[in-house]
Amino acid sequence: xxxxxxxxxxxxxxxxxxxxxxxxxxxxxxxxxxxxxxxxxxxxxxxxxxxxxxxxxxxxxxxxxxxxxxxxxxxxxxxxxxxxxxxxxxxxxxxxxxxxxxxxxxxxxxxxxxxxxxxxxxxxxxxxxxxxxxxxxxxxxxxxxxxxxxxxxxxxxxxxxxxxxxxxxxxxxxxxxxxxxxxxxxxxxxxxxxxxxxxxxxxxxxxxxxxxxxxxxxxxxxxxxxxxxxxxxxxxxxxxxxxxxxxxxxxxxxxxxxxxxxxxxxx
Length: 267
Known about the structure:
By secondary structure, the chain is α+β, with helices and mostly antiparallel strands. The chain has helices spanning 64-67, 86-93, 119-132, 149-161, 229-233; strands at 19-23, 35-39, 43-47, 52-54, 75-80, 106-111, 138-140, 144-145, 166-170, 179-187, 191-202, 208-214, 220-223, 241-246, 259-263. The chain is globular, with a radius of gyration of 21 Å.
């Protein structure tokens, strides 16, 4: 099962607002008998029954061979190839001239909006359609039942060992709901590391934008997220060591979605 999911938008060009997961807190949420699945690190897409749209409602120019046998009802899922392949997926999906490369992409479904019944019934509706209308590009993301909390921990560890991104858990006993949901949760996890500040980057108005950090491995990258007003006014000094969190690596070996945590003080 696979990790996490999740993604958002405020206004849309289509007739429904997509569901947005909240963050899992094991102290607050009773997840017994919920379902868990891997969060795929791809491009979220909505099939309206006629066209494929991004999570922000922008048209995705999928080739006709990819969508010609899609169903006449809404789907919500991830355009995906394999783990740790986000940059490639993004380049294919957002490039209007990459038709032939779509043959390597599948549309992995985690929700069937606008269908009646609980999540099990909504999935069954799609399964029955695909039994009668097989489609090699449409996949249903496997769902695993959570019997006890330890099941989630074991599954999350398994996903991370395979270079997956995270886990999504959901209450399967409710009808479809849109907007921010407390019944679909992202199981967040991240790594942390330290780097040496070697220089700064500034905006055109001379305000601080980001640090250039050098890792022990020799990798250099820009860190611009997570800074408080205090740190933006007085960023860590050159030569200082800062700690940051991140969610895996890009194909170039740089920390992905890195965010400042703290400056390491001299001990």
